[in-house]
């Protein structure tokens, strides 16, 4: 069926009806919990009712404890009102109310006492005085400009309501802003809020002593046994004599924590004024096990049951190189591979070299692939890039088709941008990947080609329990023909993270009884997740797309359904039941639903 024919097909309405029914079911299940809470509240009414302005209701409900039993007599009443007046005055003072009226009365139409709270006038800031001492207070243009910038950034200004949490937060931000650059020993010497309850005005005073300006000294490394100290010092974004910067210390610590050679790393300086001209940088490390053998087993509806054996050596050739080798046996795919990675440098760049052999039998297409390559990789913030040279030889045998041996030498570039709130359980953010690579007959390739690919995933939170997930991908291989190009540089679709409702790599070009890769592909997903608890949720989705040899040969294949989501200790798991709209077949898809 072509794309145009699909949109005029009479069955398209069934998809909308099915999705509507699933949405109503998920909504009904979510509402039932709220109705149950309302029922319990009616069945167990409070022994005292609080009457207070709406902005204060949440504060009192969270921090003031109502009586667990009815107030039986005047003694209990007096005890309760004394406690209420003491605790509620303290609570309201944090919000700037210092003259509240608190009374306990019996409502005319009810036997339940009412605790009536009138907060009185709110206190506002009338004056702010921020004084600096130490090196930062010296009469130097750069320091003077920084002082003015710090004062301008003060968050609790004149005319704003005085609130204790905001007052404490403003002081903490001020101290952190001073201490993050040059002044590691900065401290608040004095702070006070003078409240005039008669005029409802507050005068604020903060005195901050920056102390002397610090500079980095020599590095003191502890806990290093197997590795040379140059492995550590080469990653530092500073050198002895540089001005102190807290963000550089944290960046250095993060780099060390991310190295597989160490199980933990801590970096700090002692804020001792006596050593401010050359403060020693202390690096405390705990080395991880150098060699490790691991085994695993699992199942995927894409490639079936699997077992694997992996070996890791974090000090290969005694040069802190990381060797990874492994064997993975799956029902439809078997792989043996080895990779050696260097240590990332200051810019987050490292090199990899590796190779492997892989055999697959998917959709009646058998392939035997031998490959080797070298790459330069870099991770900088949210951006990851990779530039690689890969050689590959593939022996392919489609059932009922033409056997071919294809060889290629490819220059391959990849860019991935990740901006998500949680790498394991994303609710907000996006992941974008762009890849381009090609080979030439003039350089060890059987075919001239240029492969392009782009993918974008987007998570959007809807309230506290709902997440909208959108995914789109497209690829095109520019070439005179698909013949002579290994399958890795062509496209098939279907299965998990593609078009559910169709078997793994079921969508492509038919060759004999097999499905092989084509030169063009486009797929997409619209998925709506509802979380009943923090760990368990449900989803409804629609996937669509196709892979073909030409754009005109593409059809709109649609799969839709629902599934279960579980935030397991090892990552998100998904179990989906999907229906292929074209043939009406139901298929189960199971996967570890990783974000990228």
TrEMBL record:
Keywords: Cell outer membrane, Membrane, Signal, Transmembrane, Transmembrane beta strand. Residues 290-593 form the Bacterial surface antigen (D15) domain. InterPro entries: Bac_surfAg_D15 (IPR000184), D15-like (IPR039910). It is found in: Membrane. The lineage of its organism: Bacteria, Pseudomonadati, Pseudomonadota, Betaproteobacteria, Nitrosomonadales. It comes from Nitrosospira briensis. Its main location: membrane. One of its GO terms (cellular component) is outer membrane. This is Translocation and assembly module TamA. PANTHER family: SORTING AND ASSEMBLY MACHINERY SAMM50 PROTEIN FAMILY MEMBER (PTHR12815), TRANSLOCATION AND ASSEMBLY MODULE SUBUNIT TAMA (PTHR12815:SF47).
């Amino acid at each position: 069926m072509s794309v145009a024919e699909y949109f005029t097909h009479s069955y398209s309405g069934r998809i909308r009806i099915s999705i509507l029914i699933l949405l109503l079911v998920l909504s009904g299940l979510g509402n039932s919990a709220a109705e149950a809470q309302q029922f319990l509240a009616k069945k167990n009414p409070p022994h005292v009712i609080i009457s207070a302005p709406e902005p204060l209701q949440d504060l009192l409900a969270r921090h003031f404890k109502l009586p667990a039993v009815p107030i039986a007599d005047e003694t209990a009443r007096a005890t309760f009102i004394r406690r209420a007046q003491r605790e509620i005055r303290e609570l309201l003072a944090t919000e700037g109310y210092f003259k509240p009226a608190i009374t306990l009365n019996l409502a005319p139409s009810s036997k339940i006492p009412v605790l009536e709270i009138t907060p009185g006038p709110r206190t506002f800031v009338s004056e702010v005085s921020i004084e600096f001492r130490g090196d930062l207070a010296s009469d130097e243009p750069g320091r003077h400009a920084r002082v003015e910038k710090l004062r301008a950034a003060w968050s609790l200004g004149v005319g704003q309501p005085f609130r204790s949490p905001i007052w404490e937060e403003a002081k903490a931000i001020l101290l952190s802003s001073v201490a993050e650059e040059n002044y590691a020993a900065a401290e608040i010497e004095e702070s006070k809020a003078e409240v005039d309850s008669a005029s409802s005005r507050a005068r604020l005073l903060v005195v901050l002593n920056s102390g002397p300006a610090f500079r980095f000294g020599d590095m003191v490394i502890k806990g290093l046994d197997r590795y040379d100290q140059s492995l550590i010092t080469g990653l530092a974004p500073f050198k002895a004599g540089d001005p102190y910067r807290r963000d550089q210390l944290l960046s250095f610590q993060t780099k060390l924590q991310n190295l597989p050679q160490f199980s933990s790393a801590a970096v700090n300086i002692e804020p001792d004024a006596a050593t401010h001209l050359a403060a020693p940088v202390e690096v405390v490390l705990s080395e991880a096990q150098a060699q490790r053998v691991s085994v695993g087993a699992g199942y995927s509806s894409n490639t079936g049951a699997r077992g694997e054996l992996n070996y890791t050596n974090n000090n290969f050739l005694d040069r802190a190189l990381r060797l990874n080798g492994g064997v993975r046996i799956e029902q439809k795919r078997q792989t043996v591979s080895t990779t050696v990675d260097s240590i990332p440098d200051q810019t987050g760049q490292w090199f990899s070299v590796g190779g492997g052999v892989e055999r697959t039998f998917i959709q009646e297409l058998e392939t035997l692939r031998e490959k080797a390559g070298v790459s330069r990789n870099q991770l900088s913030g949210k951006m990851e890039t990779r530039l690689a040279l890969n050689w590959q030889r593939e022996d392919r045998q489609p059932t009922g088709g033409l056997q071919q041996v294809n060889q290629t030498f490819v220059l391959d570039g990849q860019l991935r941008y990740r901006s998500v709130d949680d790498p394991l359980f994303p609710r907000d953010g996006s992941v974008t990947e762009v890849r381009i690579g090609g080979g030439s007959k003039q350089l060890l390739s059987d075919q001239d080609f240029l492969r392009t690919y782009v993918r974008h995933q987007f998570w959007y939170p809807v309230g506290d329990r709902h997440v909208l997930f959108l995914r789109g991908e497209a690829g095109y291989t520019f070439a005179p023909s698909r013949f002579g190009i290994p399958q890795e540089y062509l496209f098939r679709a279907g299965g998990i993270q593609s078009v559910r409702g169709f078997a793994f790599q079921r969508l492509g070009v038919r060759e004999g009884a097999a499905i092989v890769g084509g030169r063009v592909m486009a797929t997409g997903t619209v998925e709506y997740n509802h979380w009943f608890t923090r760990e368990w949720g449900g989803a409804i989705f629609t996937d669509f797309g196709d892979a073909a040899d030409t754009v005109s040969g593409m059809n709109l294949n649609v799969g839709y359904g629902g599934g279960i989501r579980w935030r397991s200790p090892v990552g998100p798991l998904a179990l989906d039941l999907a229906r292929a709209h074209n043939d009406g077949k139901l298929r189960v898809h199971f996967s570890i639903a990783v974000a990228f």
